[in-house]
Amino acid sequence: MDGNAPDFAAASRAALADPQLRGNFRRAMDGLMSKRAAQFADAGEWTGVRALAASVRLRALSKLPELLEKLEETCTRNGITVHWAATTDEANAIALDILHRVDAKLVVKGKSMVTEEMHLNAVLEKDGIEVLESDLGEYIVQLDGTMPSHIIMPAIHLNTKQIAHLFKRKIKDAESREDAAYLTDLARRVLRAKFQAADVGMSGVNAAVAETGTLCLIENEGNGRMCTTVPPVHIAFMGLEKVVEKLEDVPPVISLLPRSATGQPITTYVNMISGPRKDGEKDGPREVHLVILDNGRSSIYADPELRDTLRCIRCGACMNHCPVYTKVGGHAYEAPYPGPIGKILVPQIEGLAKRGAMPHACTMCNACVEICPVKIPIVEIMGRLRVEAVKPGGAVKDGGAKASRTEAMVWSGWAAMNASPTAYRVATLAMSKLGNAAPSSLPLLKEWTNVRTKPRFAGRTLHDLARAKGVPDV
Amino acid sequence: MSDARSSILTKLRATRDAHPLPPPASDFAPIEAKRWPPEERLPRIRRLMEAVHTEFIDATEADWPVVLREFLAREGVESLLYAPATEAGKRLVEGWESAANPTLIPYDRPLEDLKPQLFESIEAGFTTTRGAIAETGSLILWPTAEEPRTLSLVPHIHIALLRTDALYDTFLQAMREQGWAQAMPTNVLLVSGPSKTADIEQTLAYGVHGPKRLVVLVVHP
Ligand code: SF4
């Protein structure tokens, strides 16, 4: 592991040792899973709309360069200024340029995963610009000085008591009250003053429509509307895969996203922006900018198998259903996107040298694939990344970076054992007779037993049992 | 950054052409199949929206301004922002001047001139709608030069006038029948309740940034 690379194993160990954190996640994820299931009780409807949404995303990818050009053309016609950024540095520079030109001192932001990817807040703060996250969850995380632990519910790792404590420390005149309604109202008061005073509002984009030059944004709180309506300038950031071909392609995506994410039939607001304030209109920003970011996406697009990663609509359902994510929580990944989608997206963006451990944090149980509303073959892509991590010459950045002589030896030993009936028999017999005698403190076994019950080996091997039932051995 | 533009597009085009992806057909039938008998649409909208704390009041074409005035008086609302140039705005002011009514504030200036008042003192905002959607319980808001966006966003109470002749089964159907793709305005919105959040330990709290209350004034024929 190189010096700067996040250490997933160490971070997971710390998370597993924190019962408070595990409890917070367990409760939240159980609730989200059952709410989602209730939304898709009609299996026929789920199958049909899911196939439709997957086709919408695939069709967009099949025409990606043309649709991005068309989006630029329609947005420009509508008065939106379109910018292109190959890297996060370029995207940050574009943002800073606009901010300097309008002499911005205060920025309010709606939730945007792309800006997390860009570390935009740190860049702006370094430049002396105050930047305030306005989604309540993001605001909490920002006050706490940490990063979001879930793409839909950024502060899911904290409970009410912890948030009350944080607000008391950080917000002037805050009372010490562990009450969600009071805390929400407190944040409302602080943020309303900021919306009113902000020079620039920033947002992400859930879908950008090439046909009409429309930016769609969905949210529950109204902060997204505030950021895109009240300040005189609005800057929207999107990954280049967010484009859809037609306006009619939006309803299938909107139908699945909130239902998959939080189990709501729809979010409180579906906001569709097609330009800055026109002559005669009394509100809305006077300038709207769209920053289209690549940051490795065009390389993902280049590989026909990995391309499916770009279908993602960022609903977060795969996280909610992932047995690994629900145990270790989002922070263990130390990445802008945690959970199953993070495990395939982040290594492709940041390279396998830094992120080669992420695809291993998976039991291959397929739960994420079963619930993904756009049918991304996450587990297959995960397998591909595991191979590329140890084998140079593949499509992903830093392929082969995780090649290990010991691992290669272990696997060739494993293959040899399975290829020789005698070796196999000796090994399985040894496990069934001696396995239970092994103390849980043994290296390797300890990793498992620290946070789980020790597995019990059956007294007889499967082959034994089968033979006893009269199944001929081979 | 036009360099970025051409290098991104060139790469996407070259790699896509090397490994073409045939565009799949999109079958919209599963959404088109979502239908409710006309008489069930409004009750469904109401049920779904009430489940997320939306309030409903019923009126007729003849009496809705009076019904609204009485509601505001009952709730102790002291100021109402409205759009004076719209048909509904003109109807609203007729007969308003009796002393007991809340103060009517016309949205007749750019936002910049109204901001402090809008954020600090105005209690309610009144808008029309372009209909509602039965599948999800959503109002369609179509802000215009006469009826600005912040009317439905900043005041603590948003009152939305809904005529029952524009109820749709789905978002897709509304979009198609109203011909949205031909002429999108600066902003279109679906609104399905008052502002809410569950960011603090999954506990639902209403009125986080937008309106704390959403009141639908249903105008029956
Ligand atoms: S991979 Fe699928 S389930 Fe996960 S966030 Fe993306 S769309 Fe949702």
Structural class of chain B: alpha/beta
Q: Would you identify the CATH architecture of the largest domain in chain A?
A: 3-Layer(aba) Sandwich
* Cα-to-Cα separation, first versus last residue of chain A: 43 Å
The first-level CATH class of the largest domain in chain A is given as Alpha Beta
Q: Which spans of chain A have pLDDT < 50 for at least 5 consecutive residues?
A: none
- Report the portion of residues of chain B in β strands: 15-25%
CATH topology of the largest domain in chain A: Rossmann fold
SS-derived structural category of chain A: alpha/beta
CA-based gyration radius of chain B: 21 Å
Strand content of chain A: 5-15%
Bound molecules: iron/sulfur cluster
Computed over alpha carbons, the radius of gyration of chain A is: 25 Å
**Oligomeric nature of the chains:** heterodimer
- Principal-axes shape call of chain B: globular
Examine the coordinates and then state which fold CATH places here, giving the name of the CATH topology of chain B: Rossmann fold
Number of domains of chain B: 1
CATH superfamily of the largest domain in chain A: NagB/RpiA/CoA transferase-like
The CATH superfamily of chain B is identified as: NagB/RpiA/CoA transferase-like
Strand order of the largest sheet of chain B: 1-12-7-4-2-3
Order of helices and strands of chain B: HHHEHEHEHEEEEEHEEEE
CATH architecture descriptor name of chain B: 3-Layer(aba) Sandwich
Task: Describe, in plain words, how this protein is organized in 3D.
- The complex is a heterodimer of chains A (474) and B (221).
- With 474 residues, chain A is an alpha/beta fold.
- Chain A folds into three domains: 139 residues, Orthogonal Bundle (Fumarate Reductase Iron-sulfur Protein, Chain B, domain 2), CATH 1.10.1060; 234 residues, Rossmann fold (3-Layer(aba) Sandwich); 64 residues, no CATH class.
- Chain A is built from 23 helices and ten strands.
- A six-stranded parallel beta sheet of chain A has the order 1-10-7-4-2-3, with helices on both faces.
- Chain A is globular, with a radius of gyration of 25 Å.
- Chain B is of the alpha/beta class and 221 residues long.
- Chain B has a single domain, classed as NagB/RpiA/CoA transferase-like (Rossmann fold).
- Helix content of chain B is 32%, strand content 24%.
- Chain B has a six-stranded parallel beta sheet with strand order 1-12-7-4-2-3, sandwiched between helices. Chain B has a four-stranded mixed beta sheet with strand order 8-5-6-9.
- Chain B is globular, with a radius of gyration of 21 Å.
- The interface between A and B is large, with 104 and 80 residues.
- Bound molecules: iron/sulfur cluster.
- Iron/sulfur cluster binds next to helix 14 and helix 16 of chain A.
- Chain A: InterPro entries: 4Fe4S_Fe-S-bd, 4Fe4S_Fe_S_CS, FTHF_cligase-like_sf, Helical_ferredxn, LUD_dom, LutB/LldF, LutB_C, NagB/RpiA_transferase-like.
- Chain A: This is Iron-sulfur cluster-binding protein.
- Chain A: GO terms for molecular function: 4 iron, 4 sulfur cluster binding; metal ion binding.
- Chain A: Keywords: 4Fe-4S, Electron transport, Iron, Iron-sulfur, Metal-binding, Repeat, Transport.
